[in-house]
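User: Here's a protein and a ligand (flavin-adenine dinucleotide). What would the complex look like?
Assistant: Let me lay out the input and then the predicted complex.
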Amino acid sequence: MTDETIKVVVLGGGYAGIMAALRVAGKTKRQPTTVTLINALDYFVERPRLHEQATGTPLHGKPIQEMLRGSRAKFRQGWVKTILPDEQVVVVDTAVAEQRLPYDYLINALGSRVDRQIVPGVDEYAYILDPYGNLTADMLHKWLKARGARPFRTVVVGGGATGIEMAAQLIGIYPLAAATLITQGEAGAFKGPRIQKHIRQALAEQDISVVEHCRVLQVEPEQRLR
Ligand SMILES: Cc1cc2nc3c(=O)[nH]c(=O)nc-3n(C[C@H](O)[C@H](O)[C@H](O)COP(=O)(O)OP(=O)(O)OC[C@H]3O[C@@H](n4cnc5c(N)ncnc54)[C@H](O)[C@@H]3O)c2cc1C
């Protein structure tokens, strides 16, 4: 007897993955289909708010099971290790064991991550706005909290939305901090000249120094103010 069920596997439980799983489950109600969503964490991380978490606002991630409730999509927590397209199998590391999940259709919504290897020192010394791994948003919060009421210096790298939001949030919550924003091109260039002008003005009003057209070649350990 052959299994006629169509297996849809969705990788990643961010905005894209959750939406995809819910939509596919809804649209295939009358077909013999299973929809399985796989994500590293068992709760939803609002990435656009990680700079808030880094400065002390708890995110209270919603359980993914709860978000899928009422749909036919099933959740499985695990780390996607390998996709074997020839066999139509995904290999997933779960808390219990390595599992092989067969699929007919695969939706890859694993998002993106900061490349920690390309610039020497990033992996060891730089915080990134990620929910898991080493030197994450949560660990940055602990570091910031430990500064107490003393002045300290920070460098934020990246003149896109994430870097600008991070620098502005940092100064807003920690007024004794000094922040320098370093970027390859121009800060805020992604939004066109009118908004860029406004962004630059807002950064200047917060005393955030902006260093443009500059590439970070190496990151070294933190140096404390004397
Ligand atoms: C600080 C900050 C501010 C931002 N502000 C905005 C904004 O204002 N507006 C805007 O539109 N965008 C903003 N963004 C970008 C936005 O967050 C992303 O575009 C969006 O999260 C992408 O959604 P996604 O579902 O594709 O990926 P993600 O949200 O990254 O989701 C991917 C999921 O896959 C999981 N995953 C990854 N690898 C594996 C693996 N191997 N195994 C299992 N699970 C895995 C991750 O844990 C995650 O849950 C911001 C981002 C940041 C960091």
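Summary: The chain has two domains: 6-108, 122-211.
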